[in-house]
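Re-run with default settings, no changes from the original entry. Doing this only to confirm the output is reproducible before filing.
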Amino acid sequence: MSSTTVAPNGHGAAIVPRVPAHDKPQTRISKKRIKVLLDKLAVPFDPLEIQWRVVETKKAFGRLRGRVIPYADRMAYMQRLNDLLTPAGWSSSVLVHPGMGVAGERGRGTPAKVVVTSQITIHGLGAHSATGEEWATDQNAATSAEAQAFKRACAHFGLGAYLYYFFRGVWVDLDRNKQIQTPPPLPDWATPEGWDAGARPDIDRLRDGADAAPACCDPEVIRQIEAMQNELGSEVYRRILKRYLIWRPEQIRDAATAEKVLADMQHAAPLMLKVAHLLDRLGKPAFDEVMKICNVKSAAEFGEAGVLERVLGALEAKLSAFDSQL
């Protein structure tokens, strides 16, 4: 059974028959050379090559927040392959599948998806393939699906694989256009310098924070604490942790503290919603006046014990006085 492939550097448009495997000249490569290549492929991209994609948005106390994940352009992958192997040292093949329709509710049809399979062959190392997909309504559906499949196939060789450790993403502030205001800093292990120095990601911590919880703590409690950051916002979330002299949930070392932290966060979340509601009712000038009366400089202080309750009480009193005047 034959298949097709594109030109060795991945850019060619002409489709040519692939030579059957048994007719290819066998390329021998030493185990040492294989290890060197794989190690170099695994090194993170230059931070300047990294971009951030917003995959989820949420309002938190009047601020627009976004969960972002990092990615690199396909050209960064191809450049790494060319630098390490030369354009003649690797090849890629692409297979576009027929449009795949997806059934909607009550039998209603939805747009089809473009599905692409990409195979990457590194001469002397072997081949890996992966698929990518995009809705057919996207004008660049084929290009996006192909790029996704290409990068996923490269990850099998370790190239760009470190980006998948950002499985859960990072929450940052967004502007009114849902664009990142300030890109989040990359950890040491996600930079070439840190990687070469031996820094490595903790897959358990990044993919599922509960797995990194101390044995004395209930993993589900740690997971719930981490989830509260989305409801409280980073500043209040960190302020509550700071009250217990910890900076991250995995630093909690006993079950009693974990339960107290979670209880404080769960207590604060609905109160913050009430404060946000009163802010909408009273307006920002009245809200700022109450904050000044309560000697609270910023909403970050809502993470301090008693501050949120004090501000909420003052806001409710002001609203009551305002309503009585109507």
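The domain at 4-22+42-204 is CATH 3.30.390.80 (Enolase-like; domain 1). The longest strand covers residues 109-122.
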